[in-house]
Amino acid sequence: MEKVLHKGFKYDTVPEKYVFPPEERQKKLASNKSIPVIDLANAKAYIGLGHDEIVKQILEAGKEFGVFQIVNHGVNNEVMSKMLEVMEEFFNMPLEKRVIHYSEDLCKPVRLFTSTGAHDIVPLWRDCLRMAIYPVENFKQYWPEKPSNLKETVERYAVEMKGLTEKIFGLITEGLGLEYDYLNGGLSGQPMISHVNYYPPCPDPSLTFGLAKHCDPGLVTLLLQGDVSGLQILCNGEWQAVDPVPNAIIVIYGHQMEFVTNGQLKSVEHRAITNDMQSRISIATFIQPAMDCLVAPAKKLLDENNPPLYKSFLFGDYFANYVANLGDKLKLTEHFQNTTP
Ligand SMILES: O=C(O)CCC(=O)C(=O)O
Ligand SMILES: [Fe+2]
Fold first, then answer.
1. Pocket flag, ligand 1, residue 225 (CB < 6 Å)
2. 306: DSSP letter
3. 272: Cβ below 6 Å to ligand 1?
4. CA-to-CA dists, residue 62 to 55, 174, 200, 220, 261, angstroms
5. DSSP string covering 67-116, please?
6. Residues in domain Fe2OG dioxygenase (predicted)?
7. Residue 147: strand pairing partners
8. Are 145 and 24 in contact (CB under 8 A)?
9. Residue 46's pLDDT is what?
10. In this prediction, does ipTM exceed 0.95?
11. pLDDT given at position 51
């Protein structure tokens, strides 16, 4: 396989190997409901005016869609735009400057790869710079030296993402009636990882995917998508676009959130499509349990009317299954559902 897809020029035609079989290609989108945009301006660490409404909206969005966008989230807008800008610069650097980060070693804290970097049947129209970003002091040394302001920008972004995670977790646990820090500790104990997804312009987006249908493995994914559309979610069997909202961050519930909340919050299946006019960058930051963390439905959410729908398992076991099944939610759910009456 080629080391990276993006070589800094526009392709004239889609190379054969990137073409998906006709039955798997995108079909018409549903244009009904739009994904909720939740304004966090009045969300406080304590109960205040407007706060209860925000908690309610977050839970409802989780029950219905498994995804929502947030605005006035407190993350510095300049940090977000700098992050997108510096990553665009990274992917526009000459190939020889980028390719030094290419690696197939899954354990590396920073690596560039193409497609999923795994055993794809049809490769995806995507390159990805994967970086462990938090705790900053453990990983900063591995981040790319070029562009020269990359390290400083990623550091600021990582700190903002950490703060935002705590804020969102506080709102979710409050809404569910769990202890305030229930989702902290082991359940979000893995270092924070960001995937900087780069989708070069594609001559025929109807034939390819930037990312194929998957659910995210962790608790939540915080996604920055700039102003180019491309994210789609599967909602009641129909695909729907999540169009960009200025300065918004998309919150995607991952599969562990569904397990921990005993199915109260849904993990949404999603994909990314390509675009023939512009390249697109999205930055996904994953909050995931430590590999040795025991994941199980929260006891407070169980009673005789709400028996556990899932088994308890080590996140490491889940993750091995996730990789083997390419993030297929149905297969993973079957594997971890509780079959004892
Ligand atoms: O590019 C996007 O909008 C989606 C990215 C994504 O789903 C992921 O990185 O897991
Ligand atoms: Fe994803």
1. yes
2. B
3. yes
4. 11, 14, 31, 11, 11
5. EEEEES-S--HHHHHHHHHHHHHHHHS-HHHHGGGB---TT-SEEEEETT
6. 188-289
7. none
8. no
9. 54
10. yes
11. 85
The reply to whether ligand 1 has any atom less than 6 angstroms from the CB of 211 is: yes
* Per-chain residues with Cβ under 5 A from ion ligand 2: 216
Q: What is the DSSP string of 22-51?
A: GGGS--PPP-SPPPPEEE-TT--SS--TTH
137-149 tens-digit pLDDT: 999 999 999 999 9
Q: pLDDT of 303-330, one tens digit each?
A: 999 999 999 999 999 999 999 888 899 9
- Count helices and strands in the chain by DSSP H and E runs: 8, 14
| Contact indicator for 239, 30 with CB cutoff of 8 Å | yes
All structural domains of the chain, each given as residue ranges with its CATH number in brackets, are 16-336 (2.60.120.330)
* Ligand 1 pocket check for 207: Cβ under 6 Å: no
Structural element, H or E, at residue 256 = helix 255-260
Mutation test of ligand 1: which of 231, 233, 328 has the most ligand atoms closer than 8 Å to its C-beta? Answer: 231
Segment 99-115 mean pLDDT: 93
Question: Confidence class of residue 116 from pLDDT cuts 50, 70 and 90?
Answer: confident
Q: Return the ligand number nearest the Cα of 198.
A: 1
Residue with tokens 């049809």: 122
Q: What is the pTM of this model?
A: 0.96
Mutate to test the pocket of ligand 1, among 84, 130, 211, 213 (most ligand atoms within 8 A of CB): 211
In the reported structure, the alpha carbon of residue 305 is separated from the centroid of ligand 2 by a whole-number distance in angstroms of 32
